[in-house]
Amino acid sequence: MGRAWSSPSAGAGTRGLFSLVVVLLSVFVGGVVVASPESALPAAAAAGVPAGVLARTPPMGWNSWNKFGCDVTEDVVRRTADALVSSGMRDAGYEYVNIDDCWAEPDRDPASGRLRPHRTKFPGGIGALADFVHARGLKLGIYSSAGTMTCQRTMPGSLDHEEVDARAFAEWGVDYLKYDNCHHQGRPAAERYRRMGEALRASGREIVYSICNWGEESPWSFGPVVGGNLWRTTPDIVDAWETPPDSWFLGVVNILDRQRELADFARPGHWNDPDMLEVGNGGMTDTEYVAHFSLWALLNAPLIAGNDLTAMSDGTRAILTNRDVIAVNQDWGGSQGRLLRDSGDGAQVWGKPMSDGSTAVVLFNRAADPTTISTTAEEIGLAGGGPRALRDLWTGEETSTTGVISASVPGHGVAMYRVSQPRVS
């Protein structure tokens, strides 16, 4: 069990003897300060996580949808797999190369009843593509829907074909299934997702099961029971900071607001999924992308990149491969990140216990203008006095504090730290 966390309280004050305002410089990329590669910690081991659990840490990888939509092809997947290696993303922990909708022919094989890879988009078939991906130390993911058709209506869904599809996925060497929610014929989600969960278990291959029913019918309640390793908590993300209240598609802060009450449902092997990353797709600033990545990491969310990895900027790569931040995401200290305080003016404090007794903290400025945000060791769950090591996870700077942790945070930005227990002299 992790440390106890108090409920957020609007306008709660901070206490402490000293204030530490951190203004640090390192490598400046696209308006965002990021750590030099040599200052980053090694990629995280699965600290605090029991062995023998599928998806024992939040899955990390890439998905084709956000950038390529229905234009995904075998060539795109192959080039992306190579880019995961050459960019350093594989070594930073990204391992899944996931094909989304539109990969199959519009009808099933009349003899076997199986889904058939699209003849022009995937001429080599899924099995050969899985071999290509596996040869690079990566894993292959695929997509279907718990309905009669997939969301783009380009291919059949897997409803009532769960066993034949799961067997095919296993035979092809698939390692991950994203299972969508379109054209479900009004049948209960728990029943539809249970059927595929059972089929995957019977397939003879370990396949990570990603339940994508947009937060409908409380998938965090039935997800673990039906074999889900992760479940979407909201409708689809878009590459925007915020969307209007009447929009089905959601921006970063809209999605973040829907995660506040879900922390107790996450644990190794079963994760809340606030949807894929939009980092690098061009609709937000680098400051906003740093906030997006930091908050998803603190939430123990799956880190599934959605940009074109073959053409990303150095700034995008630096965000996606920040090993200090990834280490927070991959560590299990008993709870995913939680909102600890919302001041009501856009300033928020989020915290997450770490397995080594430290705490990761994000000072988040939702507002457009810069502001100073502060917290204390007590507020973030660290007991006792004395000096504490303080590591800025975006600059790599290491300092110490005996009281308040404080930073000037840009509009739509974050400051992210890892704060230790008191040093023993």
What is shown here, in short?
This protein has two domains: 19-37 and 337-422, Golgi alpha-mannosidase II (Immunoglobulin-like, Sandwich), CATH 2.60.40.1180; 45-330, Alpha-Beta Barrel (TIM Barrel).
Layout of helices and strands, plus pairs?
Layout: E1 19-22, E2 27-29, E3 32-34, E4 60-63, H1 65-68, H2 74-86, H3 89-92, E5 96-98, H4 125-134, E6 139-145, H5 162-172, E7 176-180, H6 189-202, E8 208-211, H7 219-222, E9 230-232, H8 252-257, E10 271-273, H9 286-298, E11 303-305, H10 314-320, H11 323-330, E12 338-342, E13 347-353, E14 359-365, E15 371-375, E16 388-392, E17 398-401, E18 404-409, E19 413-422
Parallel strand pairs: 1-18, 4-5, 4-11, 5-6, 6-7, 7-8, 8-9, 9-10
Antiparallel strand pairs: 2-3, 12-13, 13-14, 14-19, 15-18, 16-17, 16-19
GO molecular function: alpha-galactosidase activity
Protein name: Alpha-galactosidase
Domain Alpha galactosidase C-terminal: 345-419
Description:
Its EC number is 3.2.1.22. One of its GO terms (biological process) is carbohydrate catabolic process. Keywords: Disulfide bond, Glycosidase, Hydrolase, Signal. This is Alpha-galactosidase. α2 (74-86) runs parallel beside α4 (125-134) and α9 (286-298) runs parallel beside α10 (314-320). The chain has helices spanning 65-68, 74-86, 89-92, 125-134, 162-172, 189-202, 219-222, 252-257, 286-298, 314-320, 323-330; strands at residues 19-22, 27-29, 32-34, 60-63, 96-98, 139-145, 176-180, 208-211, 230-232, 271-273, 303-305, 338-342, 347-353, 359-365, 371-375, 388-392, 398-401, 404-409, 413-422. The protein folds into 2 domains: 19-37 and 337-422, Golgi alpha-mannosidase II (Immunoglobulin-like, Sandwich); 45-330, Aldolase class I (TIM Barrel). The chain is elongated and about 70 Å long. The protein is 22% helix and 21% strand. The strands form 4 sheets. The protein has an 8-stranded parallel β-sheet.
